[in-house]
Amino acid sequence: QVRLVESGGGLVQPGESLRLSCAASGNIASIGRLDGMAWYRQAPGKQRELIASVTGINTHYADSVKGRFTISRDNAEYRVVLQMNSLKPEDTAVYYCNGWRIWDGTTYWGQGTQVTVSA
Predict the structure, then answer these.
(1) What is the pLDDT of residues 24-83, one digit of tens each?
(2) 17: how many CB neighbours lie within 10 A of its CB?
(3) What residues have CB less than 8 Å from 72, skipping those under 6 apart?
(4) pLDDT score of 40
(5) Bridge partners (DSSP) listed for residue 39
């Protein structure tokens, strides 16, 4: 069984930075190639939203985080990092890692990590 595991969440003050990491664990050999990885977040009372994704060399960001967040995928194919700068209170949410494979529609999710931005 495969799962994604996030780390790096926590409590920070407005304007500070956090770095979230996500890596696959379990039967990694069964994953094969992941076509893309992404970060979602879900704030209390709101729907889960896509905030950043990386497919190949292409990245995409939600307008709310553009210019402040950077997604990267390192040489270990099943690892993705989200660098979050200039954090705002409205960035407070549970952040989820996601990976997908196109040919069979398989999607992997992490359990989520809490990010709280508060003075």
Answers:
(1) 998 888 888 889 999 999 999 999 999 999 998 899 999 999 999 999 998 667 899 999
(2) 11
(3) 54, 80, 81, 83
(4) 98
(5) 52, 97
SS3 89: helix
Angle at the Cα of 28 (from 102 to 4), degrees rounded to 5?
Answer: 75
pLDDT reported for residue 65: 98
pLDDT at 74: 80
CA dist 119 and 101 (Å) reads 40
N-terminal to C-terminal alpha carbon distance within the chain = 40
Alpha-carbon distances, residue 110 vs 3, 17, 96 (angstroms): 6, 21, 6
CA trace torsion 29, 56, 43, 63 (10° rounding): 180
Angle at 95 between CA 104 and CA 57, to 5 degrees: 55
Length of the chain: 119
